[in-house]
Amino acid sequence: MIKFLELREKLQSANFSALCLYGNDSWVKHRALSNVLDFFGIQDDGFSVDRLEQPTMEELTLACMTPAMFSPKKLVVCEQPFFPEKKDDGYGDKTKTNSKKLAELRQGLTNLLSHADGSFCIVFFADSDKNFLGINGLETVDCNRLDKPSVIKWIVAFARRQGVQIDSLCADRIAAYCLLDMSRVAVETQKLIDHGDVTTETVEMLVHKDTEFAVYDLSSAIAAKNAARATEIYRGLIARGEEPRALFSLIYNFYRRVYYVKTSSFSTEEIAGYLGVKPAAVFFAGETAERYKPMQLKRALDFLSLADARLKAFVDDGEVMNILIMQLISL
Q1: Low-confidence ranges of the chain (pLDDT < 70)
Q2: Which residues of 142-172 are buried (b: 16+ CB within 10 A; e: fewer)?
Q3: How far apart are CA 189 and CA 161, in angstroms?
Q4: Three-state SS at 45
Q5: Which of 12, 19, 104, 276 is 20 to 30 Å from the Cα of 244, by its Cα?
């Protein structure tokens, strides 16, 4: 298994006949595929790349054996599941995978790759690498969501390849402002590269910071008991047109996430699934959770519930929010 960030280097040192791009981040998978296309110098123009939807072993073999028209190597891409998956039996239970069919496909793929002569490369997309392990000639690539250090490393390397220097501090800010969403990170990083000189000032000026990040920034100031900074952030949000009630909802939801992270034994992915948010939102909630004790967060939720009741009673929005911020700072 190799990591997504290692793929370019590994492609140069090994001749893979097949790759399984597995994980939970679609952007990372498609970027990995782009890296493969770039490395082999293949244009995705319909002549050198075959895209198959749940092919049989015979269809996959035929695609591999059919030479590319304008490239020395044929790329065969299977974005749909290749191996049989468990299916719902209609009563909420998953039926077992057809083990015989699975074994036949694994053996067929092993046979195909054993005769690989370098004229083709197969790229599979998958949620898990489970069924692809142990097949000679096939390498798995971890394309799960990148953590913050990995996002920072990607930003620095991506800029360097285009002749632009981005230091770790700037990359850290870009990653944070984009909430580790790689589709946004890529767009915002390219925007900075196109601008030219990348400094903390240009990052502040050009990178879009959504309201979710501003709420995280506000919560960090509150957790640090920095009343002046917290008030400054809140007033800045109001000045740019944010509604107090909308901000209250975001703050309430953020502290709920913080509380769940602090008191739960579930993984980031599981909490994100339960709460219906992106894993990055849980990651930032985790950073804030480290600054509190469980009882403090319980009191924070009590303050938020009280503020909610006051807002519903049509008490002045600004007054309610200012009091709430001071109450949270007092924890």
Answers
A1: 86-98
A2: bbbbbebebbbbbbbebbeeeebebeeebbb
A3: 12
A4: coil
A5: 276
